[in-house]
Amino acid sequence: MQRKNGRRKKIAYVLCGILAVVLFSGCQSTAADGTDEKVFVYGDTTFNAENDESDVNPHNGYSGWACIRYGIGETLFHYSDSMEIEPWLAESYEIVDDTTWRITLHEGISFTSGRTLDAEAVKECLEDLIAVHDRACGDLKIESIEADGLIVTIHTEQPVPALLNYLSDPYGCIIDMQAGVTDDGNVAGTGPYRAVQVETDQGLTLMKNDNYWNGTPKLDRIEVKTIRDGDTMTMALQSGELDAAYGLPYSNLILFRDEPYTISSADTSRTFFGQFNGSSEVLQDDRVREAVIGAIDRQGFVNTLMEGNGSVAEGPFPSYFAFGDSKVQEESYDLEYSRELLAEAGWTDEDGDGYVEKDGKRLTICWLTYPSRQELPLLAESAQASLKKIGIEVQIQCTANHLELLKKGNWDVYVSAFVSAPTGDPEYFFTTHCLQDSSKNRGGYYSETLEMLEQQLSGEFDTEKRTELAIEMTQTLLDDHMFFFASHLKMSMVSGEGVTGLTAHPCDYYEITVNLDKNK
Amino acid sequence: MKKEQKRKILFYGILAGALLLFAACAAHLAPYDPYEQNLELSLLPPSAAHWMGTDRYGRDLFSRILSGVRVSIFSALLVVAASALIGTLAGIFSGWLEGKTDTVLMQISDIFLAFPGMVFAIAFSGVLQSGMTGAVVSLILVSWPKYARLARNRVLALKHMPFIAAARLTGNGTWKMIRRHILPNLAGQTIVTAVLDIGTMMLEIAGLSFLGLGAEAPSAEWGAMMSNGRSMLQTAPWVILAPGLAIFLTVLVCNLLGEAVRKTVDQG
Q1: pLDDT tens digits, B85-124
Q2: Which 126-165 residues of chain B touch chain A by CB within 8 A?
Q3: pLDDT of residue A24
Q4: Among positive and negative, which fits the CA dihedral A287, A289, A295, A298?
Q5: Domains in chain B, ordered, with CATH?
Q6: Contact (CB, 8 A) for A355 and A400
């Protein structure tokens, strides 16, 4: 009996030993060549199909954001911290005439596929971009491209003063078209990292680009994890499962204020704004729209619900732009004035139920938004309460299925988030949202004045005149009361112990760079 | 019935009654408007002015909890009552008529029973996308088969008993026999099952609301309140603890009452 027990004990010890070895071996990553890997785990809320970022192919919707954000692709030009255009893959440029741009590329750059970056590769990439991308063709207006060694000559159909800005948009990441796009949407770029696994809505695995041209990447492998739930991400960062994270709930940032964490923040042009449905019967009257705008407590939203992680918006552009908020005037929060406007428009509380009616019909608006941006449901609920104060009933539709509902048209206000000036130029917002043929003009807004001003802006090279035009266009937009702007976002990224080089940028899409490191 | 058992039923009955009273009088008992926002009072911890603190919109949590009693309890009662009624009627028809009617009705109930209840409810609520109504309808859909099975088996056993044969011989019609002899014999078990189900249904409604498939903003439904407050678990825990505690206590009272009723019926 004793011998049996002794044998059992020995077996138990052996099993415990094996278990310990297995467990401890999991604590250290070993590369295929036997050396220790430096692995970095990054949590992010944004890499998902709902955001139109289903892969890293820059020619697919907004996937270029993932491509550039995770250090896979690079553009010909990029933005400095003060949003000034600077050469990146390009070494220099020259404006030959209003419709001809000559760009000289850096020498010695190669794609992660091994191919050398030259003018021909850029030509192939841009030609594919304008052929397949929904926005690029209208933005760039490229007529033809010539390639000669390291010199790319771009001819546009008409003057495109913001061409360099558009080339700096994430969709402008230069990828190797000969290597192509894999079935899972992977591409070969020139960045410090290359994706080896791409899983929509799940994340991706990046490996160091050993032949990177602009420094030495410090991490061997990066795991990007899509974690949609901010609380899960918070706890993952606290437990050490993540080394850094982007998209944490504001209410949780306070948990990371002290050592060993660091928070990097930057004011961005990501704007939370609404569009009115031009087909909505109750919103045909300009006074009703103005009343709605005047009853949204933007200051309270920014100070309390965003916990100061943003700034009140007047128009689409933050005030640090020359054409930004400080130059335009939006309706101020004034409930009394809003009530007066409604009364003027014939909406009064006929039955004393707290809501205004006209011909016996209550003023009810459907507020359509989506939950993947944590601020949007908060804005909806806040507006619901403040609009109730002036007698407007708000029915909130907050769903990931918002694009389907938009098409059906059964909504009155659509509130979304958008980076209004990712290229540092104002034209982008107007062309995407405010013109008759804009792809994101959800409410069918049309202004003859705005269309005319856009004509002028699209051909204007002088920066000061562009600024003046942008201010005039913004004010036109605000005066028509078909759009309202609630706030701009201050983006924050939290780094864990030993992480360096993760710095928030005002453009909102430079995150993983060659400088990122982890020393723990 | 033992005295102690009677006392238990009385005690839990009083507690349940108090909850119903709170539900009925919530509007008068709440010290503040549960839906009025005041961002300056955002996230205040519990104090004399705000017993359970305030949420991120500055709304008084105690007032919202009181207001939520109505939403949570009445929704659960509606689900239980509708499921019990539909299920019992289906079961009686099935057991009484037997044959093809029985086969068809029981196969339909088997289809619903084949899915895990909550999973089916989540899927159905997601498809309906109609907030609390969708949640209530989906829970009724997954709950009625249980009552149908219960009633059918009991009816099958009862209908061949001598007292039913005697009733038939005395000229009683089908409806009269069901009303006078079947229903009274079904009532005990059905009531016990229903009372025990109230707590479960409250949890499931809260669960659906927590997932965003039940009550919509700005409803003070407890599950939705917990969902809205979950990002503040570490920074303002009272926002999630207040509705969590309300759910816990209410479900506990319902379950203890159900258990006491069950024991009494079993002993009877």
Answers
A1: 999 999 999 999 888 989 999 999 998 888 888 888 888 8
A2: 129
A3: 45
A4: negative
A5: 3-29+59-267 (1.10.3720.10)
A6: no
Mean pLDDT of B158-167: 86
pLDDT-derived band at A12 (thresholds 50, 70, 90) equals: low
**A65 and A125 within one domain:** yes
DSSP A345-368: TT-B-SSSSSS-EETTEE-EEEEE
Q: What is the biggest distance separating any 2 CA atoms in chain A, rounded to whole angstroms?
A: 98
DSSP string for residues in A233-246: HHHHHHHTS-SEEE
B-chain residues near A255 (CB < 8 A) = 234-235
A75 to each of A106, A194, A234, B156, how far by Cα in Å? 12, 15, 32, 77
Interface test mutation site (partner A, options B38, B55, B56, max chain A beta carbons within 10 A): B56
Predicted pLDDT at A332: 87
Residue A33 has pLDDT above 80, yes or no: no
Residue B165 is predicted with a pLDDT of 84
pLDDT band at A240 (very low <50, low <70, confident <90, very high): very high
Interface touch B235/A251, C-beta < 8 Å: yes
Contact residues on chain A for B232, CB-CB shorter than 8 A:
251
* DSSP at A302: I
Nearest to A164 by CA among A388, A461, A501: A461
Q: Of A88, A38, A39, A42, which is closest to residue A69 (Cα–Cα)?
A: A42
Q: Is B41 on the interface with A (CB under 8 A)?
A: no
A280-322 tens-digit pLDDT:
999 999 999 999 999 999 999 999 999 899 999 999 999 989 9
Contact assignment for A305 to B234 by CB distance below 8 Å? no
Mean pLDDT of all residues belonging to chain A: 91
A471, A427 contact by CB (below 8 A): no
Which residue shows structure tokens 């420094």? A215
Question: pTM of the full predicted structure?
Answer: 0.79
Do A249 and A114 share a structural domain?
A: yes
Query: Long-range contacts of range B224-232, CB-CB < 8 Å, 24 or more positions apart?
Result: B225/B55, B225/B61, B225/B64, B225/B65, B225/B68, B228/B55, B228/B56, B229/B55, B229/B56, B230/A231, B231/A230, B231/A231, B231/A234, B231/A249, B231/A251, B231/A252, B231/A374, B232/A251, B232/B43, B232/B56
**A279 lies in the same domain as A241:** no
Could you tell me if A62 and A197 lie in one domain? yes
How high is the ipTM of this complex? 0.75
Which pLDDT does position A16 carry in this prediction? 56
- Distance, in Å, from the CA atom of B140 to the CA atom of A241, rounded to the nearest integer, reads 41
Distance CA B88, CA B86 (A): 6
Q: How far is B253 from chain A (nearest CA, A)?
A: 31
Domain match, A24 and A44 both: no
For residue range A92-146, list pLDDT tens digits in order: 999 999 999 999 999 999 999 999 999 999 999 999 999 999 889 988 999 999 9
For tokens 């992977």, what's the residue? Answer: A186
Same domain, A155 and A302: no
Is B56 in Cβ contact with A304 (below 8 Å)?
yes
Give me the CATH number covering residue A459.
3.10.105.10
Q: In 3D, which of B46, B52, B56, B80 has the Cα closest to residue B67?
A: B52
- Residue A397 or A126, more confident: A126
Q: What six digits make up the tokens of B185? A: 């014999």
Residue A258's CB is within 10 A of a number of other CB atoms, namely: 8
Range of the domain at A330: 267-491
CB of A151 closer than 8 Å to CB of A179: no
User: Would residue A411 count as lying in a domain?
Assistant: yes
Torsion angles phi and psi, residue A23, rounded to 5:
-65, -45
**Is A276 inside a domain boundary?**
yes
